[in-house]
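Hi R.,

Here's the chain you asked about this morning:
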Amino acid sequence: MPQPSTRLSTVMIVDDSVVVRGLFARWLGESGKFNVVAVAGDGEMAIEHAARYHPDIVVLDIDMPGLDGVAALPRLVKESPGSAVLMTTTLTERNARLALQCMTMGAVDVLPKPESRSGLTLSLDFRSEFLGKLASIEQSRGRSAPADAEPPMPLALPPVGVVDLKPLVSVVPRYLVIGASTGGPRAVARVLSDLGDAAHHLTTLVVQHMPPLFTASFADQIATQIGIPAREPYDGERLARGTVYIAPGGRHLGIERKLGHIVANVSDGPPVRFCRPAVDVLFNEAARHLGPAALGLVMTGMGSDGTEGAAALRRAGAAVIAQDEASSTIWGMPGSVVRARHASAIIPLANIGPAIRALVGGGHGA
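And the predicted structure, written out as tokens:
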């Protein structure tokens, strides 16, 4: 019997390069999972097409003549509020800052493009990453699930929305370790901002899946937004309270104890679960060296990075918060922690910062 047809996700590609538009369209067509309904070479045309086609996903380049991607994004989102926007850009410090700005304005993720034409057209890794990001965005929209996904099963889980963390910890944590990926920059910034003065009582370490240059710009953005030091640490740096440390793009961030002090362990080790930096690396080392003095937080992102580390934190006596599904751009990483029963609490984004603030202490000052 014929199988019922499933509507393919619709995609609009916006890039001033004819080669890039054609390449992306071909890859999407060959995947059999997407329907390219429109292409545009500039921001003005993209806004017109968005109003007409309302695509599920928009692939939007930052650098274009005339109206570029940054300027077009808010107008595009207004014309088609249901569209998920993936920004693309070459890897420069300027573009990293602009990409982060776009994510604060509603873009769900960013994909760095290879600098050379051959790197773009011949790299199987880039093609795989491009299709993987679109697949993860599609999954987050609720249209499809991975072919090997396990059927949902009833779990005895902590109630969603729990905000009193005190019964879940044996000591007041002094270290906050955070893992995030897709949708993370905006979500992490929200939590850190909501911490208020409690941020001064914590040493905060963040693994956000990002390439080099992007993480340094992310640290600058955090420092400006919340008014406390935020930066990429150097290997062996003694970690200070009241500072946010962002894992450098392309390098693992862990911790170790030296001469009675906790210091950063920045390394070029192999990827863990295809990730570098990896949340599991940070969480595993936090479990080993901090125990219940750490508080884990797994936020929006695709994949399962952080699940193994969350288990280690729980075994070490630390609590682990998972962001809830409704407030996550993609409930891959926190969902994996929840399904593995390693979450001490499942909390909506808006409640995470206040819950940690109530646990640690500190008012809501900036």
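The two ends are 62 Å apart (CA to CA).

Let me know if you need anything else.
M.
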